[in-house]
Structures are given as structure tokens and as C-alpha cells.
Amino acid sequence: MFTLAIKKTISDLWENFIPTLVINLVVIFPFLLGFSFTTIKSFPQVAIMAVAMGGIVISLIFLGAAGPYSWVLADYRKAKKADFFSFMARGFGDLFWSYSIFAFLAAAVLVAVPFYLEKMGASGIVAAGLVIATGIIFALASPYYLAVRSQKNLKGIKAYKEAFRFLFQNLGYGLIMGLIPLLTLILAVSVMQFVVFRDTATLNYFTNMGFSLVFGIAVFVVFFLPGPVGYLVFFQNSYRIRILGDQYRIDHPDHQGSLPWKEILATEMDLLSQRKTNHRFRPWQN
């Protein structure tokens, strides 16, 4: 399951190489532009914060639009850049649901955890742990929200319920998948320190430690490939494969034990092998 998701994601991105690069830049550029204003000292502080927040909001809306766009890539369709902009309205709706809940949980963690730890002793530790655990579970389920929205056309709470169902049915898989956004975030912070804030100390650190190549890879991974679209395509493929497994259980109610994934995914593997690509490098094939 995990191996096929990786292979198919590489295939989808390779088949749509240029559109993926362009959309990644479209998603990231407002964010970079907004934060670049924080380095300008001559502007009023209110104006700087307004531009920075505006850049973040626009990037998040674009990220919401990238959700259904990533499903176009994962569904064996040829992506067009115009498709991305046609999803803007949905992107705004997904922004409201997903990020408002995330903002609420983030605020709860930042406010409630220090309060519980300071005021409530041992019981506060338990309460703080529950708040943190809730935030972690939500963070692990959130990437699948856009996949559920695209593939089952559910909205709001119903979409989140399905995302949580997927997570709890595939908890080990979800934990592994959670490491990917975490590592990406770490790379993004390092890149942002250098690119946006012109923090040469970050670059010097990597160079002095002999990891300049790692820094270069971080820039490429965060901004270009796989970038935001690549990770969304990966989540789309993961959820698509899980749906195939669920459908097999529906079609075979008497089946007991582990699912025969080789049989279930035979059609997917066949579709991948039939893709007509002129490139010599085809890493998704066995």
C-alpha cells in the first residue's frame, strides 16, 4: 500500500511535471512575499503585519484549491493550470473549515496547556496531555481532509469524520505519514530563515557542517518538487488505495483476515504500467 502510493505519486508528478512546478510556486509565492515585508523597517508595523497576514491567507486559499487539483493528477487525468484557478471558490471554503478548526486547536494548546501545567498540578499534566494529544490527532487527520473533499465530495464536519475514520483504521500508516509534513516543516523553517529573513547563519551552519547539499535539497523539496502539490497528491493516492480496500470488503462480506492487496491493486499497477511517457526515467515501474 505504502509502496504503491509512492510509486503512483512519482508517476503523477512526472506526468505533470511543469504544471506541478508552476502551481507549487503559485501556492508559495504569496506566503514568501508577505513575509518578505517583515524585513522592511521603513513601513508602519500595522501595514507590515497586514501584508504578511494577507500573504498567508492567499497562500492558504491557493493550498485549498490545490486539493481538488491534486485529485485531477491522482485520477489519471491530464492537469491544466486553468483547472487550478477554477477550484478557487472551493479553496476558500476549505480554508474556512480546515484552518479555523486548526487555529482553534492551536490557540487551545498555546493557552490551555500552560494554564493546566501551572495551576492544576498532576491533574493539569493529564489535562494538558489530552489537549496536546487532540492537537496531534487533528494534525495527523487534517491532510486527508482535502482528499476526502475531492474523492467523496463531503463537506465540513462530515469530511473530517471520514478523515478521522481513515486515520484510526490506518493508525500506523498515519503516524508514518505524519512524519512527512513534520520533516517538510523543519526544512521549510530552515529555508525561510535564509530566503526570507536573509539569515546567512543558517546557510553557514549547513556549509560548516558539510550539509550544503542537504540545504539545497531542502530548497528544492519545499519549493519545487514534491512541494505542496506533491504531498497533496500523495495523500490523495493513499486515500484512493484505502477506498479500494473498503470496496473489496463490501464486495466480499465473507472475507476474513488481511486484505489481498496484490489482487486489489492489480488494476492500479496495470494502469501505471500502461502510461505512455516519452521520458527514459520512469521510477514508478518495478
Question: Could you write a compact summary of the structure shown?
Answer:
The chain has 286 residues and is an all-alpha fold. The protein has 14 helices and no strands.
Strand content: under 5%
Mean pLDDT: 77
Q: Strand count, sense and closure of the main sheet?
A: none
**Gross geometry:** globular
Structural class: mainly alpha
Q: How many structural domains in the coordinates?
A: 1
Query: In percent, how helical is the residue content?
Result: over 70%
Report the end-to-end length measured between terminal Cα atoms. 15 Å
What is the radius of gyration? 21 Å
What's the helix count? 14
Sequence stretches where pLDDT stays below 50 over 5 or more residues: 282-286
How would you name the oligomeric state of the polypeptide chains in this document?
Answer: single chain
Let me know the number of strands: 0
What is the succession of H and E elements? HHHHHHHHHHHHHH
What does this structure look like?
The structure is a single chain. It contains 14 helices and no strands. It is mainly alpha-helical. Helix 3 packs across helix 5. The longest helix is centred in the middle third of the chain and has 32 residues. It starts with a helix and ends in a 13-residue tail after the last helix. The relative contact order is 0.14. The C terminus is likely disordered.
Outline the fold blueprint.
Layout: H1 2-15, H2 17-36, H3 45-74, H4 81-86, H5 88-119, H6 121-141, H7 143-152, H8 156-169, H9 171-195, H10 200-208, H11 212-223, H12 227-251, H13 261-264, H14 266-273
